[in-house]
Amino acid sequence: MKLTITAPKIADAQTVALVNQAPLSIHDVTQRVEELRLVLSAPDWEPTPEEREQLVDDLVGTELMARDSITRGLLRDPEIQARLWYFQRRFLADEWLRREQTALRVTPQEIEAFYNVNKSYYQLPPRVRVRQLAVPSEQQARQLLKQLLEGVDFAPLAKTHSIDANAATGGELGWVVRASDKELYARSGAALEGNVLFPEAESVVFALEVDQSSQVVKGPGVGGQPHAYYLFQAAEKQPGRQKSLTEVQDEIKALLSLQQLNEKLQRLRSQATVETHKERLKGGP
Question: How far apart are the first and last CA of the chain?
Fold first, then answer.
């Protein structure tokens, strides 16, 4: 199969420049604007009239360089031919994907049915927002616990005495989830936001009430120490809950759309003769 591209016919009313009688069109300017929106990560960027005029001058420069490349015989270079062949197929594949995505239809009924069958994947487990304090000795940890029980605020103690990386923020560790919940989400291909504590601390933290401080917990070392002694405080707790259909319907729609695209691609693959030699990649590109 050979791909060939010919220049489109451009009406005079659509022509913004002529370079050696080769027309440049309003469509060329529009395409350049789309490219710049991607480069600038600004999908809503709209050039001013002056900037559009500058784009025409830029396109003239592009056309001159392209024409000179043809004159110098660059199109006969095997490496350039291979790259053009790749870019043509990549562009057509992108257009196929764009048009197929536009034609996709996922109904509300399909979304709801998927949600009902897969409700377990849309459960948020309980989590705790934790403050943490770590010191090198058990005696020091017990002295600090005594102060906490006497009503001293956790954050100033952590800032003054803690040897872990969260000391500067008053021991704020953020949200913590159970390791088993994190692993369950990972196996399903999803990500669960939240830190995970070492095992001895996890059960202690999840048993705390809000603003309650823990007993001393021996755990992993910090700052080169073989082990450290920890105190925790539950700053906030959130129970587990089921995400509603409204919360996840966009996510499900995207997933079902991707499934439809994959099915279309698999049909194309089943109708084609495909032979791969992946072992030849061992040497690298």
Answer: 25
